[in-house]
């Protein structure tokens, strides 16, 4: 049997609107050029240009409909076609054995015979201390005494640890004497020195913990016990346990599919319940020391220790207790990816001893990307803003491509808000106030570039910051009182 075939010639720079009919017209134009027929060439060229404009308008209308129907997958597919983006081929060749190995790797936390653990000392909440009766102060400081001390200050002297210069204290003695005397007398009444009055000798150690396949380690029976302790109805607890047990899992790698295996550990990948269940699973992990703070967001856990006068025993003990607690509930610390950052602004910074977890030394880093924000040990935002500018420039390229196909201004603005402004406003309430003027100008320059592409005014960086601050204020309520320094 003879099957007819037809050969099509395609080009890498062909755009998605360049249809087969346009290819035929382009071929006719090239044939007329090679034959030297000037009249036929002009006709073919004009026809091709006209049809290209029509095809572009048609494709722009298609993208507009995809925007209006909230279909981001189709929009990004169209952008990849417009920009000739090619998905890089995988570096590892797919085969059946690799699929089986991956399936076995994902099920490595399947452990039989694990029973719910008893709450440890590390998981007990702190109990409030009893009310302390303070003796009456034996010393009171008068306003005149403070006033005289301020007037005796020498303007050229260097400031103390608080950074307030004598050149400021002496001329403001009349205004500050009453306030300072009240603060000192209140301190004497409470028998407590405010933290800001103590000599500076503190620094902060931040431990960014990485878990190995965190969602795959949840033991349903342990989770059920924890949910019961949180007063979750027993029927819901049993339903969740049934959902997590006896699940069938396999790995599909290209055209290869592994054998199915049954697992009763962990939560399904991509399940909307997985982050919530993991948060409940680790809810009882709390700090037992007031100088140590545990920040948890889904499977991201950070230990923040305030080290005063070089005393690190509480911080190191807390880390050891956390590692022991993880082993009790089947959590596996990924020590090679667990890093530490030290924030230390002391003048003479000594070499600090490294932190060790399970006989592995934790490496220290100068910056770390935490929940989408790059934090540096000098608390400057240059590295984070460099990343933002790079991401915005990528978005501006796609915005230019959409502008070339005559997408309406309204949809261009919508694309800017979703792709570029969302990156620009990520944690803007945290870094904007501390960013340098040059960094603010760099970011504002990208906003102006977007304005030129769209052809419409856009909110400035200051306006975006103000709107986000007001939203946070409305969400948390108005600030009615300020915290006491004690």
Structure characterization notes:
The structure is a single chain. It is flat and about 110 Å long. A hairpin with a 2-residue loop joins β9 and β10. The longest helix is centred in the N-terminal third of the chain and has 31 residues. The C terminus is likely disordered. α12 runs antiparallel to α13. The chain is of the alpha+beta class and 486 residues long. The strands form five sheets. A four-stranded antiparallel beta sheet has the order 6-7-1-8, with helices on one face. A two-stranded antiparallel sheet has the order 2-5. Strands 3-4 form a two-stranded antiparallel ribbon. The chain has 16 helices and twelve strands.
Main traits of this protein?
486 residues; alpha+beta; 16 helices; two-stranded antiparallel ribbon; 12 strands; 10% strand
Which range best describes the helical content: under 10%, 10-25%, 25-40%, 40-55%, 55-70% or over 70%? 40-55%
Identify low-pLDDT runs: 112-132, 479-486
Category by helix and strand content: alpha+beta
Compute the number of strand runs: 12
Beta-strand percentage?
Answer: 5-15%
Short recap of the structure:
The chain is of the alpha+beta class and 486 residues long.
